[in-house]
Amino acid sequence: TRQTGLTALDYGFVNTAATRSAITFIDGDQGILRYRGYPIEQLAKNSTYLEVAWLLIYGELPTADQLADFDERIRHHTLLHEDLKRFFSALPHTAHPMSVLSSAVSALSTYYENESDPHNPEHIELNTVRMLAKLPVIAAYAHKKSIGQAFLYPDNSLSFVDNFLKLNFGVMSEPYEVNPVMSRALERLLILHEDHEQNASTSTVRLVGSTGANQFSSISAGINALYGPLHGGANEAVLEMLGRIRESGESVQRFVERVKNKEDGVKLMGFGHRVYKNYDPRAKLVKESADEVLAELGISDPLLDLAKELEEIALNDDYFRERRLYPNVDFYTGVIYKAMGFPTRMFTVLFAIGRLPGWLAQWREAGTDTHTKIGRPQQLYTGAVRRDYPGTV
Ligand code: SDX
């Protein structure tokens, strides 16, 4: 390239290393997202987190019996080993819940080292259920730790989502009644996050899985990749951005100008996407939910109005239109999570719980097929040409 100015593409090399997958389809120009062929709009409004998890992992919607058995197995794997609960006390209460989550998942694998052969179908099934059952509990413990409250035990009489809400918002000394509005909204938000083809964290899970690493280690790596503010961490960054605008008293227009001038590298968080060059279909559904949930909870949040004003200005501004920048899934989710009572630092943890079924499905597709080769992303070398060490010639 340095001598000729040509690149591999000029020689007709096409990136043949594109990942082949049958799980999720995205058309970024049309704003289409389908899980195993089913449109996200239909699944988000009519299905459940566990039914969609089964669809992603096994390729078809489950029968009623299959779903009931899946649900039952998950309920009976929600308990963490008592030693693992003590793991949390080793971390500072100021620890970010995403750090706690990835560390605890990695530690989880130490309890199942004799049942984690990535080519053993029984181990794969067992650890798929263990991950789905225990990640929400670990997440709730990370939340409770961050607010200095006692951990609760899972309540297996509750649904997956309701159990998670109780683990987060229940307290020992009081009965806890699940708010159906929160339950329905969280179910829909989790479904919207369940998979998204080869995003950074899923690619990480696949790459780690392709080395023969077990599900726990692969998922822990995916959690760390998701943590970044350009990826899953954006939902937390959006709320911080909206809060800063509001507290500073800066006009939305002035903030948008700073974004356009790239002052101090400021970005409109929750906007833009590597694939969607149109409205992210998930963002549309989340925005609808935001209005419904806040109205039903009787909450009016000025940050939601601020987000809508930002969207309105950006969608009508050439800078964003020319770069095809639209709201993505992270733009409105934080307002709903905040209305539910989750602290901002838990938002990406909620994204991770949503994404877990997709990670597990993609790990199985990539890492456990005994014919799958180890992942090895290609590079185009742009470094120094051959030269000799001084004095050797
Ligand atoms: C997720 O991949 C997935 O599917 C991810 C995800 C999933 O479900 O797994 O959908 C979840 O991660 C959503 C994205 C969340 N991240 C954010 O909201 C962070 C803010 N967005 C950006 O940082 C950015 O849009 C990315 C990282 C999401 C995408 O970056 P791209 O496609 O590589 O775009 P780019 O960085 O090449 O930018 C192109 C232009 C640049 O301007 P110019 O150099 O042409 O002048 O657009 C500008 C950028 O500066 N730009 C933005 C912007 N995003 C891009 N300008 C202001 N604000 C933004 N948010």
Automatic annotation (TrEMBL):
It comes from the Bacteria. CDD domains: EcCS_like (cd06114). InterPro entries: Citrate_synth-like_lrg_a-sub (IPR016142), Citrate_synth-like_sm_a-sub (IPR016143), Citrate_synthase (IPR002020), Citrate_synthase_AS (IPR019810), Citrate_synthase_bac-typ (IPR024176), Citrate_synthase_sf (IPR036969), Citrate_synthase_typ-I (IPR010953). Belongs to the citrate synthase family. GO terms for molecular function: citrate synthase activity. The keyword Nuclease does not apply. This is Citrate synthase. SUPFAM superfamilies: Citrate synthase. It comes from Microbacterium rhizosphaerae. Keywords: Acyltransferase, Transferase, Tricarboxylic acid cycle. PANTHER family: CITRATE SYNTHASE.
